[in-house]
Amino acid sequence: MGARKRNRAEQLKEARKSQYFAKLNNCPTSPRKMRLVADLVRGMDVMSALSVLEHSPKEAAKNVHKLLRSAIANWQTKNEGVRIEESNLFIKDIYVDSARMLKRIRTAPQGRAHRIRKRSNHVTLALDSKTELVEN
Q1: Which of 51, 70, 55 is closest to 126 using CA atoms?
Q2: 3-state DSSP: the chain helix, strand, coil percent, rounded to 5?
Q3: φ and ψ of 129, to 5 deg
Q4: Strand arrangement, sheet containing 113-129
């Protein structure tokens, strides 16, 4: 590995230490349905996002709610003694990627078979705190 590449990798590693994120792998929901829920809370502050997810009728909202609580717990382990309400945490980034697809066969008329694709997804959620700029 070259020197520039190594230096850049070390910079990214240091930057990642100050980020707080949680990841959910192989969630058995289609990515399209999960993206609808992810779009609801993208950019919101943490407390309002928790209440939106808690009262959402969608099944995928339960998984995202649990993932958000996990990201908050990751934040709390590094910031002991700081209250969530005072920290101005918000959902910086949330994205949904497709995961493995289970392929099943459904019987069809006249001896045929149709393929059923059972989709799953990966969700990554990153938190950040809003810092207000003070002008002198």
Answers
A1: 70
A2: 45, 35, 20
A3: -110, 140
A4: 20-27, 113-129, 89-107
Give the other-Cβ count within 10 Å of 85's Cβ. 10
Predicted model pTM: 0.83
pLDDT at 133: 46
**Other Cβ atoms closer than 10 A to 88:** 13
- Which parts of the chain have pLDDT scores under 50? 133-134
Identify the residue whose tokens are 């990841």: 23
- In sign, the C-alpha dihedral spanning 123, 126, 127, 130 is negative
pLDDT of residue 24: 95
- CATH architecture for segment(s) 21-129: Alpha-Beta Complex (3.90)
Please list the residues that pair with 31 across neighbouring strands: none
Biggest alpha carbon–alpha carbon distance for the chain = 79
pLDDT at 81: 81
